[in-house]
From TrEMBL:
The keyword Transcription does not apply. Residues 13-183 form the Glycosyltransferase subfamily 4-like N-terminal domain. This is Glycosyltransferase. GO terms for molecular function: hexosyltransferase activity. PANTHER family: SULFOQUINOVOSYL TRANSFERASE SQD2 (PTHR45947). Keywords: Transferase. Signal peptide: none annotated. Residues 197-369 form the Glycosyl transferase family domain. Pfam families: Glyco_transf_4, Glycos_transf_1. It comes from Phnomibacter ginsenosidimutans.
Length: 396
């Protein structure tokens, strides 16, 4: 049994949080775990309630530990984190997300933790910041890599970017551990969950519901989704579109709908069916995936988008921009379609192709589910991670 400190910058609704906590739930059966987290930023939905399902794992909160760089607050977080690690005396520190990777690895190195691991859930070097900031971040990550025992990438493409494009570390220092998800939640009681979702959002049986799931932030490029709706609303009136999630750009996105003549409703305040329904945060994603007929992703940059993995586990076809590690989880033409960025016409064409052919929709959904069962199992991810931990400890 090893003592493992898991450090996650922001405990908020999202793929990174869900993945990290699900892995922790499995690891606690074999190891002594300490979960260290910060809070969320404005317009992010706190997910502290999820730790209630991890009763045997100690949980430490560090205020301000997450979000943008704030030198004084980050220094305080660093000092507090060192104290926490000193008390726990971990064999392994595993950091997730950029801020946790910075403060966490520095604190772990200062406390001489034997094994330090960092996972890149996405790359902040493209699409998030101005070029000069991105260059500075790459240099910082190279410096941090020297203090890291092993870096984890979620896909082969991500590993190639980290090693060859950005030269953060050598091939020898990086391991690929693809994400997994809890498949059962998306495969059990589907019809019951589907009826619940479609009844709540007043969807008739004839409607085809298409959704985008995630934080409403610039990198997710929801504008492309709305531009595509504008192309489809008159040509395919039975299509209904759902923006599942929230964020500081939600109101601006609603304004874009109005400017484009798209009927929209923010469901928590205006509970009615519209061409575009903004649901805000929904914690029961399995019901969302059961109720929707197709899932779309429009991101500029992605690591491994959990929403597309969940969609395929639920037997739903997907349409996505070719961003980051998409090709590792979506088979173009078989489990869905991938399209170029900034091309609403291509996105609309792909959506129509699936929506107009029920047999194709079913075939793609079935292929996605088969792929999920073969490649996306959480047990496989946990087993890979456990082997890596034990190997690193043995070689220390």
């Amino acid at each position: 049994m090893a003592k493992i400190a898991i450090i996650l910058g922001r405990l908020v609704i999202g793929g990174t949080t869900m993945d990290t906590l699900q892995v922790a739930r499995h690891l606690q059966q074999e190891h002594e775990l300490l979960l260290i987290t910060g809070g969320g930023q404005k317009d992010e939905f706190e997910a502290a309630y999820l730790t209630e399902h991890l009763p045997s794992i100690r949980h430490e909160r560090i205020q301000g530990f997450g979000g943008s760089i704030q030198p004084w607050q980050d220094w305080q977080s660093y000092r507090q984190l060192r104290k926490v690690l000193r008390r726990f005396q971990p064999d392994i520190v595993h950091t997730h997300t950029a801020k946790a990777g910075l403060v966490g690895r520095l604190a772990a190195a200062a406390e001489k933790v034997p094994v330090i691991v960092h996972t890149y859930h996405g790359l902040l070097f493209h699409g998030y910041y101005k070029p000069w900031i991105s260059r500075l971040m790459v240099r910082m990550e190279r410096w941090l890599a020297a203090k890291t025992t092993r870096i984890i990438a979620l896909s082969n493409m991500q590993r190639q970017q980290i090693v060859e494009q950005y030269r953060v570390c050598s091939h020898e220092k990086i391991a690929v551990v693809p994400l997994g998800i809890e498949l059962a939640a998306f495969q059990e009681q589907r019809e019951e969950k589907r009826r619940y979702f479609r009844s709540k959002y007043k969807l008739p049986d004839s409607a085809i519901a298409i959704g985008i799931v995630g934080r409403i932030v610039p990198i997710k490029n929801h504008e492309l989704f709305i531009q595509t709706v504008a192309l489809l609303q008159k040509a395919r009136p039975r299509l209904r579109f759902f923006v599942v999630g929230d964020g500081h750009l939600r109101r601006k996105l609603q304004q874009t709908c109005t400017q484009l003549g798209i009927d929209q409703a923010y469901f928590p305040e205006e509970p009615r069916l519209a061409t575009v329904v903004f649901t805000s945060w929904i914690t029961e994603v399995d019901k969302v995936m059961a109720g929707l007929d197709m899932i779309v992703l429009t991101s500029h940059n992605e690591g491994t988008p959990v929403s597309l993995m969940e969609a395929q586990a639920a037997g739903k076809p997907v349409v996505s921009t070719k961003a980051g590690g998409i090709d590792d989880i979506v088979i173009d033409g078989k489990t869905g379609f991938t399209v170029a960025e900034h091309q609403p016409e291509q996105l609309a064409e792909a959506i129509i192709k699936i929506a107009d052919q029920p047999l194709l929709m079913q075939a793609m959904g079935d292929a996605g589910q088969a792929m999920a069962e073969q490649q996306f199992r959480k047990e496989r991810q946990v087993n890979d991670l456990n082997k890596l931990y034990l190997s690193l400890l043995a070689n220390h």
